[in-house]
Amino acid sequence: MMFRKTMNRNNTEMPNGYLETIQKGIAGVRRFSSGISRGTGTRQENLARLRNEIKTADAIVIGAGAGLSTAAGFTYSGERFEKYFFDFAARFGIQDMYSGGFYPFPDDETRWAWWARHIYFNRYVEAPKSVYRDLYDLVKDKDYFVITTNVDHQFQTAGFHKKRLFYTQGDYGLFQSVNPQIQKTYNNEEWVMKAMEAQGFIRNENGVFDVPAGRKLSMQIPTELIPKCPDDGSDMTMNLRSDDSFVEDEGWHRASAAYSDFLRRHDGLHVLFMEIGIGANTPVICKYPFWQMTNDNTNAVYACLNYNEAYCPKQIEKQSVVIDGDSGNVIRQLL
Question: Which of 15, 153, 268, 288 sees the fewest Cβ atoms within 10 Å?
Fold first, then answer.
């Protein structure tokens, strides 16, 4: 099986935007001790204020979490799960895509069949709802940058320029070797398509893989399709940050440096830090650093769009716009 390699050269001279943002996040946690605020003003007043901030800001930094993809229809349970993983649910009792990623499958053929589906339906198809495209329409004429913990590639699919994106936690579209000496990533699109065909999925009129009419699918891929590293034949795994074995390849380091440079170039200017759909799992990557950078820059504004988790520190309440609700609906209202 052929994989396209993404080399990891010496990146020691590049600024490390990821490390910098983590440090800012830690500093922010220590600084904000006066409690939180749910924001001020009515919903309509906040929508109007945020529209104006988007229009007038010198730059916009978007921090996106899983809530944005959920709003776009990339749900890991319910209808999507039941449609594409019904057989895995029946045989193994798996109840959602997230928990299935940790299931101890009986063999590699079954495990990689699962992952082929998981990758395909969360990486190589467009999100069911237009939320990402709507967000792009909102900021496409601005000087923007996106930092995200999402791994589903939907920003690029919607039109965001790859040089303005930093996927901090990996990409469903990449494999890495289990051999820690091989610090490369490998594009998996060709493999995913073959593994989907091998399970019996068929392409519909739009060219998208779908469950056949008889719902007869294999829960295994052929042994020869199990992905192996082209450099040393070692096993492959997902390029997702779960521990210190995560490979930060050359593209990752370029994006990290670009984020650092973007923040440096706009330091002290009217910057809108727009946080969308970030929960409590990884706040130190976007949420806390945004609080810190807003506090340090009197010209900055912090916006929080979230469902039931919209808040800001009281210390930056006057510089903040807080809107509680479905992110997709809020973005459409802003348009």
Answer: 268
- Close Cβ partners of 296 (under 8 Å, ≥ 6 residues apart): none
pLDDT tens digits along 212-267:
999 999 999 999 999 999 999 999 999 999 999 999 999 999 999 999 999 999 99
Angle at 217 between CA 214 and CA 223, to 5 degrees: 155
The string of pLDDT tens digits covering residues 134-181 is: 999 999 999 999 999 999 999 999 999 999 999 999 999 999 999 999
- Check if the beta carbon of residue 8 is closer than 8 Å to that of residue 250: yes
- According to the model, what pLDDT value does residue 4 have? 57
Q: What architecture (CATH level 2) is domain 11-73+131-179+251-335? A: 3-Layer(aba) Sandwich (3.40)
Residue 323: phi, psi to the nearest 5?
Answer: -130, 115
User: Could you give the residue ranges of the DSSP H alpha helices within the chain?
Assistant: 17-31, 43-56, 66-71, 79-84, 86-92, 97-100, 108-123, 131-139, 154-158, 189-199, 250-265, 287-296, 327-334
Which two structure tokens, joined as six digits, stand for 230?
A: 């082209």
| Separation of alpha carbons 206 and 36, rounded Å | 47
Both tokens of residue 139? 């900021």
Domain boundaries along the sequence of the chain: 11-73+131-179+251-335
Q: Is 307 exposed, middle or buried (0-12, 13-18, 19+ CB in 10 A)?
A: middle
Query: Which residues have a Cβ under 8 Å from the Cβ of 83 and sit 6 or more positions away?
Result: 211
